[in-house]
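Record copied across here:
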Amino acid sequence: MIVEIENLTKIYESKLRVVAVDGVDLALKEGEIFGLLGPNGAGKTTTISIATTRALPTQGTVRIAGVDVVRHPAHARRYIGVVPQYNTLDRSLTVFENLYYHCLYFGFSPGQAKARSLELLEQFLLRERRDVYPAQLSGGLAQRVQIARAIAHRPTVLFLDEPSAGLDPQSRMAMWQAVEGLRHEGITVLLTTHYMEEADALSDRVAIIDHGRVLALGSPEKLKQTFGAQTVFDVKLKSQEGLQDAVAGLKAREDVSGVEVTEEGLRVMARAQDGLLPDLVQMASLFGLRDLKINEPSLETVFIQLTGRDLRE
């Protein structure tokens, strides 16, 4: 395993004792894309901070390519690339210079640094922006430069902390393509994200973490099967008068696992839609059907089932 996290624990001792990470065990295979999912405050960023030598654990070990990140942090950093949530490009340097000086920092000769920087400009479709400063870049372009810089020294593992935050849909798709391309270079990617669609599309495996503990681990498809990810019907009605009898009837069905009354109608969680859909439409027509939206089984339904619907600070 290229990344080994064993019994990782981080406790912040203050007036209020906070257990940010609570005995996390994870192992990442070489070349896989691994998604770490969780609500705000679940322990994702703290886990990455420890793995990338930016924070010390209270207990447990993290090894990158066999190197203990606590005992040998400088050595471990040679195997690590990091793209944080915020833009850390040097604003006084051009795109090319951000890449070039990063390579020099990691021991490249000037000739090697120049060649590697030009290679990355081509790979990430940034050649025309080589002499542009970061302040002149869109959010999507800046993120591509950050990923290019993070892998400039050819790390073994790339950590992406909320890589799509603040990006428009087009920039997000371009970022996905850039991350997918890393797979062909044998780079292992660990990403945290709030976008379930992103985790589903990119990740070979995902771990769902909450309150510092891993609640589920596996491929997106396996998690959907294991936790019975359901089809969700959102039904908007013109009237809700007398709706309780219909709700009781739906709850009595074997193919329905849950029913919620919403402000605009009903939300029905079902194990399958065959047979249910026509009955649901017929029932809804009695109350004036305005709209019916079907959400197929997804990581989001698994995520909500495990972590709840409550808002987090």
About this structure: The longest strand covers residues 18-28. The CA atoms of residues 157 and 266 lie 45 Å apart. The chain has a mean pLDDT of 91. The longest helix spans residues 110-123.
